[in-house]
Amino acid sequence: MRIRRRLAGWAATGAMAAGLVAAVPTTAAVSAEAPAGTPPVRTITYNVCGAHEGVCRSELSLGDWANGVVGHITDWDSDVVMLQEMCKGQYDELRKLLPGYAGVWNSNQTAAGCSKWGADQTFGQALLVKGPQSQVTGMSAVVTPVHLPEVTEPRSVVCAKAPVEGRVVLACGTHLMQNDAKRNDTPALLERIDEWANGLPVILAGDFNDDPADSNMDPVYAGRPGTLSLIEAGCGDTPCRTGTSTLVNEDKTAYVSKFDYTFFSRQDFRDRRSETVETGLTKVKDHLLLRSAASFQNRPAPVGGDLTGDGVRDLLVVHEDGTLRLYPGLGNGRFASYRVIGNGGWGAADVSHRGDWTGDGREDVVARIGDNLWVYPNTGDGRLGERIPMGARPAGWQSADVLAVGDVDGDGQPDLVGRSVNGLYLHRGSVGVHPTLPRSAVVLGGTEWAPAALPEILAPGDVNGDGRADLWARAADGQFRQFLSAGAAALPAPTAIGTAGTAAYPLSGTVGDADGDGRADLLLTVTPGTTGTGDLRFLPGNATGTGFGSPVTIGTGGWGAILALR
């Protein structure tokens, strides 16, 4: 039975002071429960010194050592655990004892000292995440500069995209090289994490092999402006470089250096705390175990239709040349010049953007291409990341018109509507690293929604302020109809809100409220004249929400080549 003891509380500095070395430990120290009031997102980082025989490798048996580590993990109720200098046999034993945790393992070498823990001499890093393996996407990369061929132990970062306390995060552990300006691997570390995070909340921890004041730590504290801002656990809202020591000196008499750190992305976490704990799980006192905690904080909710992150709704169009174009909104019913964000292959796609499907606080793009449905993550400025197949219903969409419309049922998750000759269906979404449509489709309408009857479906957002996304549709006779959401239920009868025949106005679209007056607006392309190739007109929503004001030309020429306005 493992003995537990409760810590007296957090020190004023956010760290529990570690004692000096008094004797070589022969048994594992008792672990410590989290004090009352500890924030819910909890991490551990620990250099276990698994292979260095005669230096610091534990003299405990594999079972005793693993039970000691498990004690610290479970008493802290850890969400994420980063372990460095670990042997594969140690990792495998922890996985057996922690069935409720998923694992990510990374190794670039072997070490003879690992034979103490089993036949496998693989030596590297591990990352454990509370939750099922199916919800974890692991990744790793070498970050040692490529211009250093003499390096015999390439250093890496190992990460996992996974749900933590209900939110998807990128959690990363690392073990960098000793402090030497020629071997500064922190820029490569930050670049890789920024790429993988793509806007997700970030937790970064590990053995950085540098003191806080060392110049090699500058890139970590500076972050990557505009995309990745990190703050060390134990700091308040003001950035700091804490000096709480985690590494023992050469004669093993005192902890004198700080090599171990935990960082959280500044905009996603608050109440960030940290403390050190002596484990007794190495032959001599070496690295202290560093455990940290924080609470999530919400970023401002994304504005429906905003792809560039400036809080203004943007226009996405498919051009007949197969490109996907983004027109950034200006907030006055007009749009800036376009930029191409998709180079070909979009001509036959159904493209739309309403809702954050990846959980990073940014609105994403959904596209039906052929028989498949894809989510294109937004990188923050409208550029698209690597596409992700929509889960649960990844195929079978060939004959459907698909539109991402926002949150139709009011459950806080984005939804899709799909239309076929048989009717209109609601597909309720689930946000995550792997976005899905996990629930059965809900019938919103019958054959009156067939393409011949209602050729165009538009996504104006929530037009009546009830927290649910509504729909517009243009009928074959040019009449625009408004359908107010009834949640996960059939749509009630529509109301007419205007008329624009397709002969004069071949294409319609909306980004919702484009001019900032709180009312959804309409966009129409104009049939090309003998001397032009078509204009774009803006029709502001009226004060009663029952129609539109006079049209204003906001785009001159070229709009006849557009296949879709979203």
Description:
This protein has 566 residues and is mainly beta. It is built from 4 helices and 36 strands. The strands form 9 sheets. A 6-stranded mixed sheet has the order 5-6-4-3-16-15. A 6-stranded mixed sheet has the order 7-8-9-10-14-11. Helix 1 packs across helix 2 (88-97). The radius of gyration is 28 Å and the shape is elongated. The protein starts with a strand and ends with a strand. Mean pLDDT is 87; it is low at 1-27.
Features:
566 residues; mainly beta; 36 strands; elongated; disordered N terminus
Strand order in the sheet with the most strands: 5-6-4-3-16-15
Helical content band: under 10%
- The radius of gyration is 28 Å
Poorly predicted runs:
1-27
Q: Quote the beta fraction.
A: 25-35%
Query: Distance between termini?
Result: 61 Å
Biggest sheet character: 6 strands, mixed
What is the average of the pLDDT values?
A: 87
Shape: elongated
Count the DSSP helices: 4
Tally of strands: 36
Helix and strand content put the structural class at: mainly beta
